[in-house]
TrEMBL record:
SUPFAM superfamilies: alpha/beta-Hydrolases (SSF53474)
UniProt keywords, alphabetically: Hydrolase, Signal
Domain Carboxylesterase type B residues, every copy: 19-354, 371-452
Pfam families given in the database record: COesterase
Species this chain originates from: Didymella rabiei
Protein name: Carboxylesterase type B domain-containing protein
Amino acid sequence: MMNPLFLSALPVAHALSSLLVNTSSGFVHGGIDAITPNVVQFLGIPYAEQPVGARRWLPSISKARDNERIFDATRFGPSCPQYDSNKPNTWSVDAPEFKIVPRDYQGEDCLSVNIWAPLQGDGACAPGVKGLPVIAWIHGGSFQTGGASTPYHIPSRWVERSRKHIVVGINYRLNIFGWPSAAGLNADEQNLGYLDQRLAVEWIRDNIANFGGDPDRITLWGHSAGSVSVDSYSFTYPHDPIVSGMIMSSGTAQSVVDFPPPNFTAVAENFRCNDSNSTAELACMRGVPSRDIMAYLKQRLDNGTTPSISFTPVTDNRTSWANFTTRALSGKFIHKPAIIGTTVNEWAPFLPYNRTLGPNQTVADNGTLRVFLCPSVLTTHERYAGGKATTFRYLYGGNFSNIAPRWWEGAYHSADLPLVFGTHGIARSNSTPLEITVSEQMQDYWLAFAEDPVNGLPAMGWKGYAGNSKGESVLLGWEDKAVQPITDIELESACDEGVPNGKPNPPVLCLVALAVGASAVATVKAHVERDYNANLNVKLSVASGLLDAPTDSRIVLMFAPNGTDPLNDTDVTSSPSKIFGKNVYRFGSNETITLSGGNNETTPTGVFGWPNVSLSDIDPGTYSVQAFLTRYETVTRSDGSKVSVRFPCGDGAPDVNGFGSLITPATDIEISGGAQTFELTFNNITKAESFAGKEVGGCNQGNYKETDKLKHVKIRSKKLSKFWGRDMYVGANVVLPAGYDANDTKTRYPVIYNQGHWPDDGGAYRYGVNKTFTAAWDAGVIPATNTTAERPAPKFVLVTFRHEAPYYDDSYAVNTANLGPYGDAINEELIPYMEDEFHTIRAPYARVQDGGSTGGWESIANVVYRPDLFGVCFSSYPDSLDFHRHQDIELYSAANAYQRADGSLVPSIRTFENGSEVILATAAQENHWELAFGTASRSSNQWDIWNAVFGVQGYNNYPLEPWDKVTGEIYPEAVDFWKLFDLSAYIVANFNSSRNLGAALAGRLFVYVGTWDDYFLNEGVMEFQKRTDAVGGPGWANVTILPEKPHGGNYQARGIWDYLELVDGWVKDHAPGGANPLTASATAASTRGNVWDEVIANGGRKAAIERQADPEIHGGKAKVGQNVSASVGRWDPGVKLTAQWVLNSKHTGASFGTAQGANVTCAPTATGHVQLLVTGEKRNYVTETRKSARVLVVR
């Protein structure tokens, strides 16, 4: 059945009756994709009787007209049966948009065409005075894979842009079903896929006018195997071409790849269909389900079964010939104009995949010449020699990291296709301006050719091959130019009659080397093409005596504009600096560390930068350069987990240059753009700020000078110190009300616990900074206004907490597996201490929680988790209350945190200008900015602290991150662990449980946010309101959402005194004797949540270990020749797996990629012992190989 999730990705906005089109197959009804509203798509239209049952392995025949029903053409039909190797490659790992989706929607009833046509003005898809040019597309895939539902090949965005052409995608039979080489078939009916393609072209000719197309202007375009198909078509139908022009991208009939030979009988033997009578063999095989045949062929491929077999076109002297050169020189081909082109690094993805190092580039270059460029040169020459046929040639050199994310990939095989189809921006990151320009230029070329194959391109300045060395081809996307000419000599000099000629450093090889070498550094954003290579090396050392012992640290290197302090602006939304980070291990005074390059893969050990990943991407110019070294302390926590983190030192845990950091002098340096090395020396330490108060416990959270009303408290937390294995402190700033008398023990005051970020020495509501508020508070009088008289101020004790922590400037004031029992340290150690020190009312109704943003989340979380301790919260613009919307990320349903399914980027920070939203940073940009400051969630920035607070410990001891920090790939299993901190989910789960939160919290949660919140936090509040209303009824939680209010301000955007009077009223109303006193059941101990023992049991080291499991072979024994099945074990979410079977202590077959939760099989070939090895690899994890127990193999 069709995967409904995939269909939902192709929303049909409307399907009008005018979209009903009459065809030779019957009436078909198209639809419109909401993303491209000016394009109508007719998908999955059958052009042939489907080759199923007795028709399997027979030439296709035209589809009989169906007069009984209207064919629903609003969704793709099945792709033809196919299989992929488990071995990783560029297309499966880095650019899966080149794969059909969904992968499992396959069937032999796959012979269909898919049409994308522009809508006419009346909303109908109908021909005008002259039909539109048509481009018929034949996909590649080594004749083994592919189909119309390939995301990078869907042309709707292209047709939307032009509205001047129609694109038709053709499905044809593949592998053993398309090229069977079966003895039971006629010799000229073996290349069934080619016959399918011809029948599809005939169907297009006969029907395209009804879709608005011109049957006399059909261009046949193919890529790779599809391009070979186009060239073979040219040799097969010279006298009845149908098409007016041809485009061959990355392949011609002269492209020779050494595929293993076919062996239909070997497959038949597996299904016990082999028979000396070839007709009987064929008949038997027609009864085997296609999925079983695919599974068998895939198993052979994955297991490395020998001899290897494959099914590709064979010489039949009908559709494929033994000598194409002889046929070409005798003029037996279609003499219509053609475009022929290649990319500069075609062969790289065909070589063994190594994500870090890439392939052997010399081998890759040779393959590019041997299989692609030189055959295209030969085909061009022979077309001219055999009939002076016009050929327009191109070389594609674009290097854009949303298509080619690895530093070594460059313009690999297929990388040019998203540019033509207009799909280049659908994955990983937005396209660069250059990428968009190249795309539009290629689209315009293709369209000009389709409109007029003879004159279209010359009118745009593209010259055809003229049989001499004076011609010009076009070079697309190379360096910083969308298009530039390249002479025939430059294009051909690496080839000599179709093979590499051995000349030293030929021009094309220079292009190849540059395309995938130093100038092709992968960036998180789409790569900006440059005409220089800043081969920059920065050597860093430590002045003598500055480090007592070697240290694990994070080095942050900043390049600020000349004359600018590098620390002046490091914010993601505004910083002009280039920031690079690198982890160093056991770095000491006698060592030098060199920073150079940078990439997406080696973030734990290499350089990673923002906004450019690599130091090689620094533009020439003069910079103020400074380096900072953040020292980590390695500790073993009480649950056995061991981490290296920075412990803040009274500085609020900044992301760089915290107290105790080593620093170099800011130095003006001229960056030349070429090879360059300079040295910096750490010669100073950032000192802690001096203060006038008395210190408790060293430099941690220093106490400050006190006043009559502002006091500072700090204690050593026994609970935190036990967890962290070192002294840990928490503190508070306490503002006393007017009239407070330390000797008056009878007068007691309610308390507002004002949550928020590191407060330094200040009081709540900017007491001590806002002089007007400070004076009024101290006087105990609310000043008169134009409309109100002077009146007494409410009297509270105001408390702000100092709980800077590893990972951030505060702990989020709850118990968490990564930060420890901060909730208990504050609520069970610090608050009781303060209640002994100050005259407060020791009852829940008189303990108020409030705060905004981070403090907003902390205030509501403390009331939700501790109804027994706190009475009410006034939470303003809180961090995500419901992870259905984590800021703007649909965390429970999205596949990627940085990019939506429609290709748009997820925003993170915004503002509004004249009522219009302006995005200041995307989720990707902010996460990558954080990664420059620290790996493993140690940047001391916002997204990382959420990982630490909401997540559990990973098997690597650090927070189990919910997505890959570089790519944004979400790990749903990791997200599941966040649900205990999803406050909506927690309330709903405990609404009627033994905690009875439905009754206990009613009337105690007050939440406010504006619709223009800077961080999209209104979305999480709305989800919270929706879900709590669903269980408690409308208004169960008091939620205020004010239009057009940004992030900031007091609750409900009130003035400070208006707000404090509101709180005062609530306290009096809920006090004993008030109108609505809190009941004993509402504050019972049974309501309590976020219990430390439960938190650490669920998310600590023991739980992380228990999530793991070694591979396991099923069953106690195995037999030679029979499949052995094994699980790959259990691993943390996001770990990528590679498996290897071992027989008698030796590898058997090749290693292969596999998925978590998978079962893998192997058929042992000898007696002895079989074992499965599985290697797991993940960012910030140690690469680990786990082994199953050895299982005996007998006969």
